[in-house]
Specification:
The protein is an alpha/beta fold and about 230 residues long. It is built from eight helices and six strands. The structure holds farnesyl diphosphate.
Length: about 230
């Protein structure tokens, strides 16, 4: 067990998670893959609660459904949408009680109407909260985010600059990602928040997402606090 005060000399302001390995977690236990996603959603809830114990972490971005995940079987897609609905619906009160802000990143217009409405309503209702911001990426792709931002800037008649793009990313006004964590052993960024991770520290772990708990987070934070970040300087 790490002693937070003693071991962490610095904290990320913005962390991002590629929550990978739900199906492998289920397969390893002889369970249906859907149960892997269900456990993944449960882990996400617990994880957000854990994050609220680290006030230094102001923004957390989670990859829940990519623009490429539409290639999966319809039944799995529907299941993930149902989980997302349950997650946001159950968690709405907590977002309010804990002063958390909810942001849905990505194009929601392809989702079932009920889910779209819930995501938009929750964003609206929590937009003035000042605690942890939870960015949930659904139908999200990093390239798509950049193109979406560029179109907004172009339509406004402004010049396309890094600052103008930044202000129009789905995650705005969150700053760049300090720490990206990917679970389950794959070492790639899979079209997640490409613009925002220009200088992210990256932490890979073999642990499958459903097993990612506070102890695992502390290991990642400990590793982060040892990194020497130079941002291209000396
Ligand atoms: C990656 O594991 C996980 C996903 C593509 C879905 C993420 C979904 C959740 C964490 C639960 C749903 C929660 C919400 C709020 C929508 P994988 O399916 O690629 O597993 P594998 O790498 O073992 O095949």
């Amino acid at each position: 067990m790490f002693n937070k005060k003693k071991k962490f000399s610095t904290f990320p302001t913005h962390i991002a998670l590629i929550m990978d390995g739900n199906r492998r977690w289920a397969r390893g236990r002889g369970l249906n893959k859907m149960l892997g996603h269900k456990q993944g959603a449960f882990t996400l809830k617990k994880f957000i609660e854990t994050l609220t114990q680290y006030p230094e972490i102001r923004y957390a971005s989670f990859f829940a459904f990519s623009t490429e995940n539409w290639k999966r079987e319809q039944s799995e897609i529907d299941y993930i949408f149902d989980l997302c609905y349950e997650f946001v619906n159950e968690y709405k009160a907590d977002f309010e009680n804990k002063n958390m802000k909810f942001v849905s990143m990505g194009d929601v217009t392809k989702f079932p109407q009920k889910l779209q409405e819930l995501l938009i309503k929750t964003m609206e209702e929590t937009k003035n909260n000042t605690g942890l911001t939870v960015n949930l990426a659904m139908n999200y792709g990093g390239r798509d985010d950049i193109v979406h931002a560029a179109n907004i800037v172009a339509k406004s008649g402004q010049e396309i600059t890094i600052e103008n793009l930044k202000e129009n990313l789905y995650s705005a006004p969150a700053p760049d990602i300090d720490l990206l964590i990917r679970t389950s052993g794959e070492m790639r960024v899979s079209n997640f928040m490409l613009f925002q991770m220009a200088y992210s520290e990256i932490y890979f772990t073999k642990t499958h997402w459903p097993d990612f708990d506070k102890g695992e987070l502390d290991k990642a934070l400990f590793e982060f606090s040892k990194r020497n970040r130079r941002f291209g300087g000396k």
